[in-house]
Amino acid sequence: MKKKLFSCLAAILLLFTIFSLPAGAATYTIDFELNCSSVELVNLDTNTIVYSKNADEKRYPASLTKIMVYIIVIENVSDPDGTTTTVSKEAIEELQGTGGSSSGLKAGDKLTITQLLNCLMVPSGNDAAIVLADFLCDGSTSAFVEKMNEKAQALGCTGTHFANPDGLHDDDHYTTARDLRRITEAALQNETFRTIVSTAVYEVPATNLSDKRIVHTTNYLMSTAINPDYYYEKAKGVKTGYTSKAGRCLISTVKQGDVYYLSIVTGCKTIVNDDGSVVYDSFVQTKKLLEYGLTSFSFATVISQLVPVAQVKVKNANVDSVVVAPAQDVTALLPADYDESQLQLSYALTGGAD
């Protein structure tokens, strides 16, 4: 009889723990102005969107496109360290006159796929994007773009259409902040991606045509080498983007203690001050947004394993009822200044046996 009672209680407790408590789906207001076209700030620990602005509106992604390029390549190349390709003359010629960012590849250079992925993500090399697309689809950029769009749909993107792998402007090349979140969250599952996009300085090894050389990240939050004004020591990755029509775009993450955030801003401005100095506002806005997340929210214990939450009647036992408590503390992401008396808790008890 005691054994049957124990089984009933264990089933109730297990299902209670699985149910847990949602961290909250509503977004919060901020007490400062964000000068961006679209924004999403997501707590990745709980998948809670804590702030959102115009997240479903059409935006041009510029070089944020390359996050999807990375995904397609890494999912289709089993040994990126051991796989080598040669930079074609056509790939270099395709970008001549476009004025976009480059990693300095030369026609005839032989590099591994991993090296090209670093050239793609660290200095945001448009040349690396074309070379990788050509390699994967036998010289057909359009076939590679088709893979990008298929993957976007598979990830649940509803407002995205890619027209190229480099992010250069095309009216038919667009996305949304919400879709960019889906794409970036997928990429962040890959450990090598997290390492590459957190790299401030990358040494491109010597090739058959070129000496080794250094390239720097375009994400000035992570480095003081090019512009120390924006450095933010807590920032990790992910990717910058810019065209005149897209504005300044930036996706970044920050992790402090047990809190992990993903920030997306698009359509930020390039500000020219009266003294001639230039401000890349995507870095300024992102830092404000990430600091807001880190300082305005924290995890709180909302149900303790030491506090019973219900008394459940049981049958065929030597007692009429048992007291139920969670198997472990249940925590939730809450505003740092939340009023505990206003907290509303809900839970469900299911399972058990006669």
What labels describe this entry?
single chain, 354 residues, alpha+beta, 5-stranded antiparallel beta sheet, two-stranded antiparallel ribbon, 9 helices, 15 strands
Spatial order of the strands in the main sheet?
2-1-9-8-7
Question: Kindly state the mean pLDDT as a whole number?
Answer: 87
Q: Tell me the span between the first and last alpha carbons.
A: 11 Å
How many strand segments? 15
How would you characterize this protein structure?
This protein is an alpha+beta fold and 354 residues long. It is built from 9 helices and 15 strands. The strands form 6 sheets. Strands 2-1-9-8-7 form a 5-stranded antiparallel sheet, sandwiched between helices. Strand 8 (247-256) and strand 9 form a beta hairpin. Helix 2 (66-76) packs antiparallel against helix 4 (113-121) and helix 4 (113-121) runs antiparallel to helix 5 (126-136). Mean pLDDT is 87; it is low at 1-26.
